[in-house]
Amino acid sequence: MDGQTRNGPAAASGRVWLWAVVWALGLSASWALLAWDRPAVPVPGASTPQFWLFWSPATVAAILGFLTAAGSKSPTWRRPRRSPISGGRAANGFPVFVAAGAAPFLVAAMVGLAAGGRSGDAAVLSSAHLAIVSTACLGLALTWGVGDIANDRFAALTKALEVLVAANILFAILGIAGGLTLGIFSVLGVVVPRNMVQIGVNLAFGIIPVLAVAAAYDPATDLSEQDLSRGPLRWLRLFARLAMVPALAILAAYVVVFIPLFFVKAFQDRAVLLVYNGTIAAILALLVLVLPARGENLPQGVSRLLRRGMLALAGATFLLNIYALAANAERVFRLGLTANRHVVLGWNLVTLFVLGMVLVGQARLGTLNKSGWIFAFRRAIVLGMPVAAVWSLWVALASPLLW
Protein backbone atom coordinates (compact mmCIF):
# COMPACT_ATOMS: atom_id res chain seq x y z
CA MET A 1 0.00 0.00 0.00
CA ASP A 2 2.84 2.40 0.90
CA GLY A 3 4.54 1.62 -2.37
CA GLN A 4 1.38 2.39 -4.28
CA THR A 5 1.06 5.68 -2.47
CA ARG A 6 4.60 6.65 -3.24
CA ASN A 7 4.10 5.91 -6.92
CA GLY A 8 0.50 7.04 -7.19
CA PRO A 9 -1.36 10.35 -7.28
CA ALA A 10 0.28 11.68 -4.10
CA ALA A 11 3.77 11.25 -5.57
CA ALA A 12 2.64 12.78 -8.87
CA SER A 13 1.13 15.76 -7.06
CA GLY A 14 4.28 16.22 -5.00
CA ARG A 15 6.39 16.18 -8.15
CA VAL A 16 4.16 18.81 -9.77
CA TRP A 17 4.43 21.15 -6.78
CA LEU A 18 8.17 20.62 -6.54
CA TRP A 19 8.61 21.81 -10.13
CA ALA A 20 6.10 24.61 -9.51
CA VAL A 21 8.20 25.93 -6.61
CA VAL A 22 11.42 25.64 -8.65
CA TRP A 23 10.05 27.59 -11.62
CA ALA A 24 8.21 30.06 -9.36
CA LEU A 25 11.50 30.91 -7.62
CA GLY A 26 13.20 31.30 -10.99
CA LEU A 27 10.49 33.68 -12.19
CA SER A 28 10.65 35.54 -8.88
CA ALA A 29 14.38 36.12 -9.35
CA SER A 30 13.84 37.32 -12.93
CA TRP A 31 11.14 39.80 -11.83
CA ALA A 32 13.45 41.15 -9.12
CA LEU A 33 16.33 41.53 -11.57
CA LEU A 34 14.14 43.21 -14.19
CA ALA A 35 12.45 45.64 -11.79
CA TRP A 36 15.17 45.86 -9.09
CA ASP A 37 14.15 48.60 -6.62
CA ARG A 38 11.32 49.94 -8.79
CA PRO A 39 7.73 48.61 -8.49
CA ALA A 40 7.15 45.40 -10.48
CA VAL A 41 4.17 46.83 -12.36
CA PRO A 42 3.82 46.72 -16.16
CA VAL A 43 3.44 50.50 -16.48
CA PRO A 44 6.05 52.47 -18.42
CA GLY A 45 7.44 55.21 -16.22
CA ALA A 46 6.44 53.49 -12.97
CA SER A 47 8.80 50.55 -13.47
CA THR A 48 11.99 49.96 -15.41
CA PRO A 49 11.77 49.66 -19.22
CA GLN A 50 13.11 46.11 -19.10
CA PHE A 51 10.38 45.05 -16.67
CA TRP A 52 7.36 46.34 -18.56
CA LEU A 53 8.79 44.89 -21.76
CA PHE A 54 9.88 41.46 -20.57
CA TRP A 55 7.77 40.56 -17.52
CA SER A 56 5.06 38.82 -19.55
CA PRO A 57 7.47 36.91 -21.87
CA ALA A 58 9.44 35.80 -18.80
CA THR A 59 6.22 34.72 -17.08
CA VAL A 60 5.03 32.71 -20.09
CA ALA A 61 8.48 31.09 -20.43
CA ALA A 62 8.41 30.08 -16.74
CA ILE A 63 4.89 28.65 -17.03
CA LEU A 64 5.85 26.66 -20.13
CA GLY A 65 8.99 25.46 -18.37
CA PHE A 66 6.91 24.32 -15.41
CA LEU A 67 4.39 22.53 -17.65
CA THR A 68 7.21 20.85 -19.56
CA ALA A 69 9.09 19.69 -16.45
CA ALA A 70 6.02 18.60 -14.51
CA GLY A 71 4.19 16.96 -17.40
CA SER A 72 7.01 15.53 -19.52
CA LYS A 73 6.69 12.04 -18.02
CA SER A 74 2.99 11.89 -18.80
CA PRO A 75 1.87 9.82 -21.81
CA THR A 76 -0.73 12.49 -22.44
CA TRP A 77 1.90 15.23 -22.74
CA ARG A 78 3.97 13.11 -25.13
CA ARG A 79 0.97 12.42 -27.35
CA PRO A 80 1.81 13.38 -30.97
CA ARG A 81 0.25 16.60 -32.21
CA ARG A 82 -0.65 17.19 -35.83
CA SER A 83 0.53 20.48 -37.22
CA PRO A 84 -2.45 22.63 -38.30
CA ILE A 85 -0.17 24.20 -40.93
CA SER A 86 1.44 21.18 -42.60
CA GLY A 87 -1.55 18.97 -41.84
CA GLY A 88 0.19 15.67 -41.23
CA ARG A 89 3.53 16.04 -39.54
CA ALA A 90 3.46 14.94 -35.89
CA ALA A 91 5.53 16.10 -32.94
CA ASN A 92 5.22 16.17 -29.17
CA GLY A 93 4.65 19.36 -27.27
CA PHE A 94 8.28 20.34 -26.62
CA PRO A 95 9.14 22.11 -29.94
CA VAL A 96 5.81 23.93 -29.81
CA PHE A 97 6.49 25.07 -26.26
CA VAL A 98 9.96 26.33 -27.22
CA ALA A 99 8.58 28.36 -30.14
CA ALA A 100 5.71 29.74 -28.05
CA GLY A 101 8.11 30.70 -25.28
CA ALA A 102 10.54 32.48 -27.62
CA ALA A 103 7.96 34.42 -29.67
CA PRO A 104 6.95 36.89 -26.89
CA PHE A 105 10.61 37.79 -26.29
CA LEU A 106 10.99 38.61 -29.97
CA VAL A 107 7.87 40.79 -29.95
CA ALA A 108 8.99 42.50 -26.72
CA ALA A 109 12.39 43.29 -28.23
CA MET A 110 10.71 44.83 -31.28
CA VAL A 111 8.40 46.89 -29.05
CA GLY A 112 11.42 48.05 -27.04
CA LEU A 113 13.19 49.23 -30.18
CA ALA A 114 10.06 51.06 -31.33
CA ALA A 115 9.27 52.62 -27.94
CA GLY A 116 12.80 53.85 -27.32
CA GLY A 117 12.37 54.35 -23.58
CA ARG A 118 9.21 56.45 -23.84
CA SER A 119 6.48 56.28 -21.17
CA GLY A 120 3.41 57.93 -22.76
CA ASP A 121 0.04 56.49 -23.75
CA ALA A 122 1.50 54.57 -26.68
CA ALA A 123 4.01 52.78 -24.43
CA VAL A 124 1.31 51.97 -21.86
CA LEU A 125 -0.91 50.50 -24.57
CA SER A 126 2.00 48.49 -25.98
CA SER A 127 2.75 47.07 -22.54
CA ALA A 128 -0.85 46.00 -21.93
CA HIS A 129 -1.22 44.39 -25.35
CA LEU A 130 2.17 42.71 -25.13
CA ALA A 131 0.78 40.81 -22.13
CA ILE A 132 -2.19 39.68 -24.26
CA VAL A 133 0.16 38.54 -27.03
CA SER A 134 2.24 36.55 -24.54
CA THR A 135 -0.90 34.93 -23.12
CA ALA A 136 -2.04 34.08 -26.64
CA CYS A 137 1.28 32.33 -27.28
CA LEU A 138 0.76 30.29 -24.11
CA GLY A 139 -2.75 29.32 -25.21
CA LEU A 140 -1.50 28.43 -28.68
CA ALA A 141 1.15 26.14 -27.18
CA LEU A 142 -1.47 24.29 -25.14
CA THR A 143 -3.92 23.88 -28.04
CA TRP A 144 -1.56 23.39 -31.01
CA GLY A 145 -2.46 20.33 -33.04
CA VAL A 146 -5.41 19.21 -30.89
CA GLY A 147 -8.37 17.55 -32.53
CA ASP A 148 -11.15 19.58 -30.91
CA ILE A 149 -10.03 23.17 -31.39
CA ALA A 150 -13.29 24.88 -30.33
CA ASN A 151 -13.72 23.01 -27.06
CA ASP A 152 -10.02 23.00 -26.13
CA ARG A 153 -9.45 26.69 -26.84
CA PHE A 154 -12.57 27.56 -24.91
CA ALA A 155 -11.28 25.37 -22.06
CA ALA A 156 -7.99 27.32 -22.21
CA LEU A 157 -9.93 30.58 -21.92
CA THR A 158 -11.93 29.40 -18.89
CA LYS A 159 -8.78 27.99 -17.28
CA ALA A 160 -7.11 31.36 -17.77
CA LEU A 161 -9.93 32.98 -15.79
CA GLU A 162 -9.47 30.38 -13.05
CA VAL A 163 -5.72 31.07 -12.94
CA LEU A 164 -6.49 34.80 -12.67
CA VAL A 165 -8.70 34.16 -9.64
CA ALA A 166 -6.06 31.94 -8.02
CA ALA A 167 -3.42 34.62 -8.67
CA ASN A 168 -5.54 37.29 -7.01
CA ILE A 169 -6.05 35.07 -3.96
CA LEU A 170 -2.29 34.50 -3.69
CA PHE A 171 -1.70 38.24 -4.19
CA ALA A 172 -4.04 39.03 -1.28
CA ILE A 173 -2.39 36.43 0.97
CA LEU A 174 1.10 37.70 0.22
CA GLY A 175 -0.04 41.30 0.64
CA ILE A 176 -1.48 40.57 4.08
CA ALA A 177 1.62 38.57 5.11
CA GLY A 178 3.93 41.33 3.89
CA GLY A 179 1.94 44.02 5.69
CA LEU A 180 2.02 42.05 8.94
CA THR A 181 5.78 41.47 8.59
CA LEU A 182 6.49 45.17 8.08
CA GLY A 183 4.20 45.96 11.00
CA ILE A 184 6.17 43.63 13.28
CA PHE A 185 9.45 45.19 12.11
CA SER A 186 8.05 48.64 12.90
CA VAL A 187 7.00 47.60 16.40
CA LEU A 188 10.44 46.09 17.03
CA GLY A 189 12.14 49.22 15.73
CA VAL A 190 13.79 47.44 12.81
CA VAL A 191 14.32 49.85 9.91
CA VAL A 192 14.50 48.22 6.50
CA PRO A 193 15.74 50.41 3.62
CA ARG A 194 12.95 51.24 1.19
CA ASN A 195 14.77 49.85 -1.81
CA MET A 196 15.28 46.52 0.00
CA VAL A 197 11.58 46.40 0.83
CA GLN A 198 10.72 46.96 -2.84
CA ILE A 199 13.10 44.21 -3.97
CA GLY A 200 11.53 41.87 -1.40
CA VAL A 201 8.05 42.73 -2.67
CA ASN A 202 9.12 42.05 -6.26
CA LEU A 203 10.58 38.69 -5.23
CA ALA A 204 7.42 37.74 -3.36
CA PHE A 205 4.98 38.71 -6.10
CA GLY A 206 7.12 37.02 -8.76
CA ILE A 207 6.21 33.58 -7.41
CA ILE A 208 2.48 34.11 -7.96
CA PRO A 209 1.96 33.29 -11.69
CA VAL A 210 3.51 29.80 -11.70
CA LEU A 211 1.91 28.80 -8.39
CA ALA A 212 -1.48 30.02 -9.65
CA VAL A 213 -1.12 27.86 -12.76
CA ALA A 214 -0.11 24.87 -10.63
CA ALA A 215 -3.20 25.37 -8.46
CA ALA A 216 -5.59 25.46 -11.43
CA TYR A 217 -4.02 23.34 -14.17
CA ASP A 218 -2.96 19.68 -14.22
CA PRO A 219 0.17 19.51 -16.42
CA ALA A 220 -0.16 15.75 -16.80
CA THR A 221 -3.38 15.99 -18.81
CA ASP A 222 -4.52 17.70 -21.99
CA LEU A 223 -7.02 20.52 -21.93
CA SER A 224 -9.68 18.09 -23.12
CA GLU A 225 -9.15 16.11 -19.90
CA GLN A 226 -8.96 19.00 -17.43
CA ASP A 227 -11.70 19.14 -14.81
CA LEU A 228 -13.72 22.27 -15.60
CA SER A 229 -16.63 21.59 -13.26
CA ARG A 230 -14.85 21.83 -9.89
CA GLY A 231 -12.64 24.21 -7.94
CA PRO A 232 -12.79 28.01 -8.35
CA LEU A 233 -14.38 27.66 -11.79
CA ARG A 234 -17.46 26.06 -10.27
CA TRP A 235 -17.99 29.02 -7.94
CA LEU A 236 -17.17 31.52 -10.67
CA ARG A 237 -19.76 29.90 -12.90
CA LEU A 238 -22.35 29.96 -10.12
CA PHE A 239 -21.77 33.65 -9.31
CA ALA A 240 -21.77 34.54 -13.01
CA ARG A 241 -25.15 32.87 -13.51
CA LEU A 242 -26.56 34.69 -10.50
CA ALA A 243 -25.27 37.93 -12.01
CA MET A 244 -27.11 37.40 -15.30
CA VAL A 245 -30.35 38.99 -14.12
CA PRO A 246 -28.83 42.23 -12.78
CA ALA A 247 -26.53 42.39 -15.81
CA LEU A 248 -29.50 42.11 -18.15
CA ALA A 249 -31.34 44.79 -16.15
CA ILE A 250 -28.37 47.15 -16.47
CA LEU A 251 -28.09 46.52 -20.20
CA ALA A 252 -31.82 47.09 -20.64
CA ALA A 253 -31.50 50.39 -18.77
CA TYR A 254 -28.64 51.43 -21.06
CA VAL A 255 -30.35 50.45 -24.31
CA VAL A 256 -33.95 51.42 -23.49
CA VAL A 257 -33.51 54.45 -21.20
CA PHE A 258 -30.06 56.03 -21.03
CA ILE A 259 -29.06 55.91 -24.69
CA PRO A 260 -32.36 57.27 -26.11
CA LEU A 261 -32.56 60.03 -23.46
CA PHE A 262 -28.87 60.96 -23.48
CA PHE A 263 -27.92 59.89 -26.98
CA VAL A 264 -25.17 62.45 -27.55
CA LYS A 265 -23.57 61.96 -24.12
CA ALA A 266 -21.12 59.27 -25.23
CA PHE A 267 -20.18 61.39 -28.27
CA GLN A 268 -19.25 64.28 -25.97
CA ASP A 269 -18.06 62.66 -22.73
CA ARG A 270 -15.14 60.23 -22.87
CA ALA A 271 -15.94 58.85 -19.40
CA VAL A 272 -19.40 57.71 -20.50
CA LEU A 273 -17.91 55.96 -23.52
CA LEU A 274 -15.38 54.20 -21.26
CA VAL A 275 -18.23 52.95 -19.04
CA TYR A 276 -20.04 51.51 -22.05
CA ASN A 277 -16.90 49.81 -23.37
CA GLY A 278 -16.12 48.42 -19.92
CA THR A 279 -19.65 47.01 -19.77
CA ILE A 280 -19.16 45.27 -23.13
CA ALA A 281 -15.95 43.62 -21.92
CA ALA A 282 -17.59 42.56 -18.65
CA ILE A 283 -20.58 40.98 -20.43
CA LEU A 284 -18.27 39.03 -22.75
CA ALA A 285 -16.44 37.63 -19.70
CA LEU A 286 -19.81 36.82 -18.15
CA LEU A 287 -20.90 34.90 -21.27
CA VAL A 288 -17.71 32.83 -21.10
CA LEU A 289 -18.26 31.97 -17.45
CA VAL A 290 -21.96 31.11 -17.52
CA LEU A 291 -21.63 28.64 -20.41
CA PRO A 292 -21.96 25.06 -19.13
CA ALA A 293 -18.69 23.20 -18.68
CA ARG A 294 -17.89 20.08 -20.65
CA GLY A 295 -19.64 17.19 -18.92
CA GLU A 296 -22.07 19.44 -17.02
CA ASN A 297 -25.57 18.04 -17.55
CA LEU A 298 -28.25 20.66 -17.04
CA PRO A 299 -31.98 19.86 -16.96
CA GLN A 300 -33.68 20.66 -20.23
CA GLY A 301 -35.69 23.52 -18.75
CA VAL A 302 -32.64 25.09 -17.12
CA SER A 303 -30.65 24.72 -20.34
CA ARG A 304 -33.39 26.42 -22.35
CA LEU A 305 -33.66 29.27 -19.82
CA LEU A 306 -29.88 29.72 -19.75
CA ARG A 307 -29.72 29.89 -23.54
CA ARG A 308 -32.44 32.53 -23.67
CA GLY A 309 -30.70 34.59 -21.00
CA MET A 310 -27.36 34.40 -22.81
CA LEU A 311 -28.99 35.35 -26.11
CA ALA A 312 -30.66 38.34 -24.45
CA LEU A 313 -27.34 39.43 -22.98
CA ALA A 314 -25.53 38.97 -26.31
CA GLY A 315 -28.23 40.81 -28.25
CA ALA A 316 -28.37 43.81 -25.89
CA THR A 317 -24.56 43.99 -25.77
CA PHE A 318 -24.44 43.87 -29.57
CA LEU A 319 -26.69 46.96 -29.72
CA LEU A 320 -24.59 48.71 -27.06
CA ASN A 321 -21.46 47.82 -29.03
CA ILE A 322 -22.81 49.37 -32.22
CA TYR A 323 -23.60 52.57 -30.30
CA ALA A 324 -20.13 52.66 -28.68
CA LEU A 325 -18.47 52.04 -32.05
CA ALA A 326 -20.47 54.88 -33.63
CA ALA A 327 -19.58 57.24 -30.77
CA ASN A 328 -15.88 56.45 -30.95
CA ALA A 329 -15.84 56.69 -34.76
CA GLU A 330 -17.48 60.13 -34.56
CA ARG A 331 -14.91 61.26 -32.00
CA VAL A 332 -12.12 60.06 -34.29
CA PHE A 333 -13.63 61.98 -37.22
CA ARG A 334 -14.16 65.14 -35.15
CA LEU A 335 -11.11 65.17 -32.86
CA GLY A 336 -8.59 63.07 -34.75
CA LEU A 337 -7.07 59.63 -34.27
CA THR A 338 -5.10 59.22 -31.05
CA ALA A 339 -3.43 56.12 -29.65
CA ASN A 340 -6.32 55.51 -27.23
CA ARG A 341 -9.07 56.03 -29.82
CA HIS A 342 -7.22 53.77 -32.24
CA VAL A 343 -7.15 50.94 -29.67
CA VAL A 344 -10.76 51.38 -28.57
CA LEU A 345 -11.97 51.50 -32.16
CA GLY A 346 -10.24 48.21 -32.94
CA TRP A 347 -11.54 46.48 -29.82
CA ASN A 348 -15.05 47.69 -30.64
CA LEU A 349 -14.76 45.90 -33.98
CA VAL A 350 -13.35 42.74 -32.36
CA THR A 351 -16.12 42.51 -29.77
CA LEU A 352 -18.74 43.31 -32.41
CA PHE A 353 -17.38 40.43 -34.51
CA VAL A 354 -17.55 37.99 -31.58
CA LEU A 355 -21.07 39.00 -30.57
CA GLY A 356 -22.20 38.88 -34.18
CA MET A 357 -20.82 35.35 -34.56
CA VAL A 358 -22.64 34.32 -31.37
CA LEU A 359 -25.98 35.64 -32.62
CA VAL A 360 -25.56 34.26 -36.15
CA GLY A 361 -24.55 30.85 -34.83
CA GLN A 362 -27.57 30.64 -32.56
CA ALA A 363 -29.92 31.89 -35.28
CA ARG A 364 -28.75 29.10 -37.59
CA LEU A 365 -29.57 26.49 -34.96
CA GLY A 366 -33.09 27.76 -34.51
CA THR A 367 -35.25 27.06 -31.46
CA LEU A 368 -35.49 23.27 -31.71
CA ASN A 369 -31.85 22.39 -31.11
CA LYS A 370 -31.44 21.19 -27.51
CA SER A 371 -27.74 20.44 -27.25
CA GLY A 372 -25.77 22.01 -30.10
CA TRP A 373 -26.28 25.56 -28.84
CA ILE A 374 -23.52 25.19 -26.22
CA PHE A 375 -20.93 24.14 -28.79
CA ALA A 376 -22.10 26.93 -31.12
CA PHE A 377 -21.50 29.49 -28.35
CA ARG A 378 -18.01 28.10 -27.72
CA ARG A 379 -17.14 28.08 -31.40
CA ALA A 380 -18.26 31.68 -31.88
CA ILE A 381 -16.14 32.91 -28.96
CA VAL A 382 -13.15 30.84 -30.08
CA LEU A 383 -13.37 32.33 -33.59
CA GLY A 384 -12.79 35.73 -32.05
CA MET A 385 -9.64 34.70 -30.14
CA PRO A 386 -7.23 34.81 -33.14
CA VAL A 387 -8.74 38.16 -34.19
CA ALA A 388 -8.11 39.54 -30.69
CA ALA A 389 -4.55 38.17 -30.68
CA VAL A 390 -3.73 39.70 -34.08
CA TRP A 391 -5.18 43.05 -33.04
CA SER A 392 -3.16 42.96 -29.80
CA LEU A 393 0.02 42.23 -31.77
CA TRP A 394 -0.71 45.16 -34.07
CA VAL A 395 -1.31 47.54 -31.15
CA ALA A 396 1.83 46.38 -29.32
CA LEU A 397 4.05 46.94 -32.36
CA ALA A 398 2.36 49.88 -34.09
CA SER A 399 1.43 52.16 -31.17
CA PRO A 400 4.98 53.35 -30.37
CA LEU A 401 5.70 53.77 -34.09
CA LEU A 402 2.59 55.81 -34.90
CA TRP A 403 2.36 57.92 -31.72
Describe the structure.
This protein has 403 residues and is mostly helical. It has 2 domains: 2-83 and 92-225, no CATH class; 232-402, no CATH class. The protein has 15 helices and 2 strands. Helix 10 (244-261) packs parallel to helix 13. The longest helix is centred in the middle third of the chain and has 40 residues, at 149-188.
Task: Provide key terms for this protein.
mainly alpha, 2 domains, two-stranded antiparallel ribbon
Q: What profile does the largest beta sheet have?
A: 2 strands, antiparallel
- Helical amount among residues, as a percent range? over 70%
Overall geometry: globular
| Average residue-wise pLDDT | 84
Extract low-pLDDT stretches: 1-9, 82-91
Order of helices and strands: HHHEEHHHHHHHHHHHH
Radius of gyration in whole Å, from Cα? 23 Å
Can you count the helices? 15
Q: How many angstroms does the end-to-end distance come to? A: 66 Å
Write a brief caption for the model:
The chain contains 15 helices and 2 strands. With about 400 residues, it is mostly helical.
Give the SSE map.
Blueprint lengths: L1 H6 L1 H27 L13 H23 L9 E2 L7 E2 L1 H23 L5 H23 L5 H40 L5 H12 L2 H9 L15 H11 L1 H18 L3 H4 L1 H21 L9 H36 L3 H27 L6 H31 L1
Antiparallel strand pairs: 1-2
Helix pairs in contact: 2-3, 2-7, 2-8, 3-4, 3-5, 4-5, 4-15, 5-6, 5-15, 6-8, 6-15, 9-12, 10-13, 12-13, 12-14, 13-14, 14-15
